[in-house]
């Protein structure tokens, strides 16, 4: 199972990790900065590049995620595709989604699941 899911928001579809991504430098929860999809025709391979950024220290990381054709179409048509997310309203929605994952992960750790 892939540790990423595609979430539809009122602003467009976005990738969200199924785990808490902490900044390796300061420990803050990293949030979505931008994403883009690509189709490697020669290799019949579709993938998603997700860029996360730490809101505290600015650390920036990239994840490469394989995706299906349906996910490719959904994300390619998202208004947030290939856009650096700066709008405060969009950022608040993303922070809510990413912190919800962090809260769930924290509770699972407290219950001894990992």
Task: Explain this structure.
This protein has two helices and five strands, in the order E-E-E-E-E-H-H. The protein starts with a strand and ends with a helix. It is globular, with a radius of gyration of 14 Å. With 114 residues, the chain is of the alpha+beta class. A three-stranded antiparallel beta sheet has the order 3-4-5.
Short description:
The protein has 2 helices and 5 strands, in the order E-E-E-E-E-H-H.
The residue-averaged pLDDT reads: 87
Number of structural domains: 1
Q: How much helix, percentage-wise, in residues?
A: 25-40%
Strand fraction: 25-35%
End-to-end distance, in Å? 17 Å
- What's the tally of helices? 2
Q: What is the C-alpha radius of gyration, as a whole number of Å?
A: 14 Å
Note the run of SSEs as H and E: EEEEEHH
The helix/strand class is alpha+beta
Tell me the quaternary state.
Answer: single chain
> Unreliable segments (pLDDT under 50, ≥5 consecutive)?
none
Instruction: Give me the count of strands.
Output: 5
- Shape assignment: globular
Q: Spatial order of the strands in the main sheet?
A: 3-4-5
The description of the largest β-sheet is:
3 strands, antiparallel
């Amino acid at each position: 199972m892939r540790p990423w899911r595609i979430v539809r928001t009122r602003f467009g579809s976005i990738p969200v990790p199924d785990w808490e991504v902490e900044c390796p430098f300061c420990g803050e929860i990293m949030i979505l900065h931008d994403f883009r999809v690509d189709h490697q025709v020669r290799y019949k391979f579709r993938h998603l590049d997700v860029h996360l950024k730490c809101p505290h220290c600015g650390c920036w990381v990239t994840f490469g995620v394989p995706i299906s054709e349906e996910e490719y179409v959904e994300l390619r048509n998202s208004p947030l595709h290939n856009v650096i997310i700066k709008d405060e309203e969009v950022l608040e929605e993303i922070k809510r989604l990413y912190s919800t994952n962090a809260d769930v992960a924290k509770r699972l750790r407290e219950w001894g699941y990992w």
